[in-house]
From TrEMBL:
InterPro entries: ACAD10-like, ACAD10_11_N, Aminoglycoside_PTrfase, Kinase-like_dom_sf. This is Putative aminoglycoside phosphotransferase. PANTHER family: AMINOGLYCOSIDE PHOSPHOTRANSFERASE DOMAIN-CONTAINING PROTEIN (PTHR47829:SF3), HYDROLASE, PUTATIVE (AFU_ORTHOLOGUE AFUA_1G12880)-RELATED (PTHR47829). Its EC number is 2.7.1.-. The keyword Transferase applies. GO terms for molecular function: transferase activity. Residues 28-251 form the Aminoglycoside phosphotransferase domain. SUPFAM superfamilies: Protein kinase-like (PK-like). Keywords: Transferase. Gene3D superfamilies: 3.90.1200.10, Phosphorylase Kinase, domain 1 (3.30.200.20). CDD domains: ACAD10_11_N-like (cd05154).
Length: 341
């Protein structure tokens, strides 16, 4: 049991005062993996909770926004988007050294590998259909009705995001990556005009950020909302396609070279087509820009992980160092995507 980044006694004392029905004694166990906000399973005699906190150490401005995670999931309670029930947000850094929140533990299964070898073809197809359905549900949320209309600024989402992640990348840059510099220049030179689409976006939508029913294929929770905002829905859709273009296996977690038809996994075209059908869209022009943007953003995120690893602030330092080697891979993939409409 790893509790090295959590003062269990301090959390238990605070929850005793601030969470209705909480009764100790409490134990905590850190979930393996994950590079951003350390996540812990809290166990009491009566029930289980999940705690997410900002990591210790000096952090980039606007990163690790657990308060935003809490707010968006609380707003989505009862919507068509499955989320865990939120309980309490602690904004007092003095309790454990950083902000944290506590939510219900949702029982379910998580698929790290999009080939999903543990399922048969029919169930595999059903999981990807659910993934598509949930993505469309996120983008169909009435942001005014759920109180999220101010959750992100007005204006050109991609212009804002390229600017933000360029700053984040420069702040965590450890060496020059020529492909990343070229990709940043290309994105700025090919920025699409604002088309007025403004929806809730998850910001890191991929299969391994979804929980599915332990005995079925229904999605029971969407996880990791740290990068969510009000923005352009095509960024989420392109992020799915970006992930699938990575090599299969533990590092890439992609579908490159996989016979998808034999496994019941939709092609990129079919997944985008199903999404467009659900959203009432005739199609998406210049998809290459959105794909290139997603590769750029992921490269910037990975560079941040690498920098935290070098400074000793990563949730999993060994994995952080390994992930850091992929920055040029993502940057070059972004350049390749930029060549295709």
């Amino acid at each position: 049991m790893d509790t090295s980044t959590l003062d269990v006694d301090a959390v238990a004392a605070w929850l005793s005062e601030n969470l209705d029905g909480f009764e100790g004694p409490m134990t905590a166990e850190k979930f393996a993996g994950g590079q951003s906000n350390p996540t812990f399973l809290l166990k009491t005699p009566a029930r289980e909770y999940v705690l997410r906190r900002k990591p210790p150490g000096v952090l980039l401005k606007s990163a690790h926004a657990v308060d935003r995670e809490f707010r968006v999931q609380q707003a989505l309670a009862g919507s068509d988007v499955p989320v865990a029930r939120m309980h309490v947000l602690c904004e007092d850094d003095d309790v454990i050294g950083s902000m944290f929140y506590v939510m219900d533990r949702v029982q379910g299964r998580n698929f790290d590998d999009p080939r999903i070898p543990e399922l048969d073809t029919a169930d595999r197809s059903a999981v990807f259909n659910q993934m598509n359905k949930v993505l469309a549900a996120i983008h169909s949320v009435d942001i005014s009705a759920v109180g999220l209309s101010d959750y992100g600024p007005e204006g050109n989402y991609f212009e804002r995001q390229v600017g933000r992640w360029t700053k984040q990348y420069r702040a965590s840059e450890t060496e020059t990556v020529p492909a990343m510099d070229q990709l940043i220049d290309w994105l700025n030179a090919n920025m699409p005009e604002d088309d007025g689409k403004r929806t809730l976006v998850h910001g890191d939508f991929r299969l391994d950020n979804l929980l599915f029913d332990a005995n079925g294929t229904d999605c029971v929770a969407v996880l990791d909302w740290e990068l969510s905002t009000i923005g352009h829905p095509y960024a989420d859709l392109a992020a799915v396609i970006m992930q699938w273009q990575m090599p299969p296996g533990g590092a890439g977690r992609g579908l490159q070279g996989v016979d998808r038809a034999a496994l019941g996994i939709p092609s990129d075209r079919d997944f985008v087509g199903a999404y467009c059908h659900r959203m009432g869209l005739p199609g998406i022009e210049k998809f290459g820009f959105y794909l290139a943007f997603c590769f750029f953003r992921m490269a910037a995120i990975i560079q941040g992980v690498k920098k935290r690893g070098l400074e000793g602030n990563a949730s999993d330092p060994e994995r952080a160092a390994k992930m850091g080697t992929y920055v040029p891979l993502f940057a070059n993939a972004g350049l390749e995507a930029s060549k295709h409409g």
